[in-house]
Design brief:
Blueprint (H helix, E strand, L loop, with lengths): L5 H22 L4 H22 L4 H29 L7 H26 L3 H7 L7 H12 L14 E6 L11 H14 L2 E6 L9 E8 L10 E7 L8 E5 L1 E3 L2 E6 L5 E11 L2 E11 L4
Helix pairs in contact: 1-2, 1-3, 2-3, 3-4
Length: 293
């Protein structure tokens, strides 16, 4: 269930609940309140085991439980209100209508928020509804280089390269706060080791087009770091479902590369881990796919 669109699963569940209510009330001729109760019991009996077996998060569970309950109870309220008012005017009262409208708006807003929180926003959604970023990738790279200038020697890059590896990873995406001390010790060891990472794309990368990504790893003396295992993750801040992680085999002494394609244009973060024996070296970077705006 965590991989399904929340608006879709909510819609299917609500429609199923309404269909069950019609079955109990119209076909089986049960009273409105009893039809609502039976609908609630059937829907939740089906949903609860599915939610447990395919657990996503508490907020996802809560919104499904609430709206499936609402879909079962509201028809009973409407039917009871309609019968009570039939002797007076026979018209549908505005109160239940307001409740239905309110809950429908709530469904749309809540499902959108939870979907964005769990899956991120697509490039089209960002371009349409969000303001343009304040900094482009070139400015970010300049700031990276300025921040690391005292520690990192200048990197030699060709004109085609549009990626940068400014320094050590300052915020690992997987580490917990309880591991902070170990991380600081690792960071100190890494700085003393002095490995440097250069290069990147060998040609200007385009979305969904295979291009060679190759890095050059050297030690503090400028000698090639050979025999390493390199894993690189391309992270999409706005849509984590697009994240790509690959292994870079060693093609020549100190050179590690792989042909790959990224699925969307724009800015990507890079998190890289280089292992050789007991040595673990982590670097961060950034790259831009497609034409810069």
């Amino acid at each position: 269930m965590e991989n399904q669109n929340i608006a879709f699963t909510l819609g299917v569940g609500v429609l199923a609940a309404l269909a069950l209510f019609v079955l109990f009330y119209k076909v089986l001729k049960r009273p409105g309140k009893l039809a609502s109760l039976l609908t609630f019991l059937v829907v939740q009996t089906i949903y609860l085991p599915i939610a447990v077996l395919h657990w996503a998060s508490l907020d996802v569970f809560a919104i499904h439980f609430a709206f499936f309950t609402m879909a079962a109870v509201l028809p009973g309220i409407i039917v009871g209100n309609k019968r009570g008012a039939a002797g007076e005017s026979g018209r549908f009262h505005w109160g239940p209508g307001i409740m239905i409208g309110f809950f429908m708006i709530l469904v749309i807003v809540d499902s959108t928020i939870i979907t964005l929180a769990n899956s991120g926003a697509s490039a089209d959604f960002i371009a349409r509804f969000l303001p343009a970023p304040r900094q482009d990738i070139a400015q970010r790279q300049r700031e990276y280089r300025q921040n690391q200038e005292a520690q990192t020697p200048p990197q030699q890059k060709g004109g085609q390269v549009v990626s940068a590896f400014p320094g050590t990873v300052s915020n690992d995406y997987q580490k917990k706060y309880t591991q902070y001390n170990n991380y600081i010790a690792q960071l100190r060891t890494q700085r003393e080791r002095g490995w440097q990472v250069a290069d990147g794309w060998l040609e200007k990368p385009q979305p969904n087009k295979v291009s060679m990504f190759r890095i050059h790893v050297t030690d503090k003396a400028g000698q090639a770091v050979t025999g390493g295992q390199v894993q690189v993750s391309f992270l999409r801040p706005s849509a984590k479902a697009l994240d790509v992680t690959v292994e870079l085999p060693e093609a020549a002494p100190g050179f590690y590369g792989q042909a790959l394609a990224l699925p969307a244009s724009g800015a990507w973060d890079i998190a890289m881990t280089i292992k050789r024996g007991d040595d673990i070296h982590e670097v961060k970077g950034g790259t831009w796919i497609g034409e810069q705006r």
